[in-house]
């Protein structure tokens, strides 16, 4: 699916998506036009989905991070609760999970007062939610969206040689 050069390009862009094309080309040893074409193909294949900006939540007054386990009374595979959760701006991620709970949501608010209001007013208004369990994060040791590309490249090479 991708070769070692594509992997190197993706590593560079994961570090900084604003790296100029000429700099990426210099670092991987290709002409800028070749790198541009490889990036275009990675976008077309859906490997590169978007170029994003990471903001400092604490500096923007959104210092409280928590994870919520949400139970719903929907039948398995129901999407109403997930869609309702996803519409709430403070809910950054919604994952359908296996186990006793139905969903795991990553949530950011300003403080515990704002979290309380969110639970009462926004989640309380979703009729399909039967219960929530909230875990407040005290310290974040690691938070990244970067994928471990070295492992992906090794797996690809092993598959090709088999």
**CATH fold call of the largest domain:** Alpha-Beta Plaits
Specify the number of helices: 6
CATH architecture of the largest domain: 2-Layer Sandwich
Integer average pLDDT: 92
- Structure summary, number of beta strands: 4
Q: Going by CATH, what is the homologous superfamily of the largest domain?
A: Lrp/AsnC effector binding domain/regulation of amino acid metabolism (RAM) domain
SS content category: alpha+beta
Q: Trace the largest sheet across and list its strands.
A: 2-3-1-4
How would you describe this structure in keywords?
alpha+beta; Alpha-Beta Plaits; Arc Repressor Mutant, subunit A; 2 domains; 162 residues; four-stranded antiparallel sheet; single chain
Please tell me about this protein's structure.
The protein has helices at residues 4-15, 21-28, 32-44, 80-86, 112-123, 149-161, and strands spanning 64-72, 91-96, 103-109, 129-136. A four-stranded antiparallel beta sheet has the order 2-3-1-4. The radius of gyration is 21 Å and the shape is elongated. It contains six helices and four strands. The model has no long low-confidence stretch (mean pLDDT 92). The chain folds into two domains: 1-54, Arc Repressor Mutant, subunit A; 58-136, Alpha-Beta Plaits, CATH 3.30.70.920. A hairpin with a 6-residue loop joins strand 2 (91-96) and strand 3 (103-109). It is of the alpha+beta class and 162 residues long.
